[in-house]
Write the structure tokens for this entry.
Amino acid sequence: MSLVIENSAPFPVIAGGSGVVTAVHLAPGEEITAGDPVVSVDDRDWLAFTAEAPPWRDITAGMAGDDVARVQEFLDALGFPAGADAGRATDATAEGFRQLNQSLGRGSEDRVFHRDTVLWIGPEPLAVSEVSVQVGEAVSDGVTVLLGPDRPGTVLVEEPESAMDSGSEYVLAVGDVAVPYTVESGLIDDPEAAATIADALPGGEGGGIVRLAEPVEVATMPVSAIVTDPDGRTCVFEDVTGDPTPVETIGGSLSTAQVSEEWIGRLVLVNPHEVREDVSCD
């Protein structure tokens, strides 16, 4: 089946404060990670901040929350004291704020984490595709400072008509790479799974196969051998006069159906509509 990668919009890195840009410390093509200076505003560096979500407030000792835990991880990554109580800003955490602020030229007694000292770049290091500000430009909270690259957002899957059981668990495989896939959905929209498939398709499109997540032994028979009656029941005939035998397909393609392994070695009529008068599954 054919696959096409659709990229999401470039990742924007947004300012959390305001001032005049006095230096730009990177260029397109460079990769930045936590603690790297991105730009200087009013002669103070704004640092790259990596986490699952951005900081959304200033933090002082005594405050608690998931955002505090993210900032503590940032402090620890930079070698500053973070405090032993994850998710709560203690006096030790405030000392980390003080040391961070001192390193950024904010004086030696400032024990507050200021959200405008960092720029959230997402959960991982970011490759810079475009710098959106220049020296001398005034920036404010909410302005885009730089852009990361387009990222794989969705994998479009063109499925051929098949007899796959929508109740089973399947994966989409490209070479040695496989990710979970919902039959008949026509897409993979989980960002991590889409990125995995994109890495296996450097050109942005190509082919893959859908298979059971847990392989099982099956028998195959021609699709023409399987009869579906008006009531939706499926069956096969083992001879021209015998009764129908119920059968359930568990996969297949346009010409071949996969059925349970109990059918291995058994004979069925491949053209029941042509050689039998009664083709009811009743």
Remarks:
- The first strand starts at residue 2 and ends at 7.
- The chain has four helices and 23 strands.
- The helical segments are 66-77, 91-103, 191-200, 272-275.
